[in-house]
Design a protein that fits this description.
The chain is built from one helix and seven strands. The chain has one helix spanning about 5-20; strands at about 1-5, 25-35, 35-40, 50-55, 55-60, 65-70, 75-80. The chain has a four-stranded mixed sheet with strand order 3-2-5-4, covered by helices on one side. Strands 1-6-7 form a three-stranded mixed sheet. The chain starts with a strand and ends in a 13-residue tail after the last strand.
Length: about 90
Amino acid sequence: MLEVTEWATDILGRAQAAARRFNPNARIRLTRVDDRVQAVLAEGALPGDQEVEIGDMTLLVEDGLEGLLDVEEPHDRLVLRPAGSTPNPRGEHG
């Protein structure tokens, strides 16, 4: 199961809204790259992807991604941490 913090939801929502201004079919897909999680743009799911509803957004999530999707500084970097972890404080980003 994937949990998504409010901060990560905000970041992903803004990214998807911006992408859809150029391509109305654009969706955010969460995938593992080496030892980190990455959000990429996609027009559809790949085999094994799960659709995860977050607010009014539906993310495509690579099979096997589980835990807490959060954000770390610098540069609003997405991180995947163990399920049940305490979300990072947003500080001035709240």
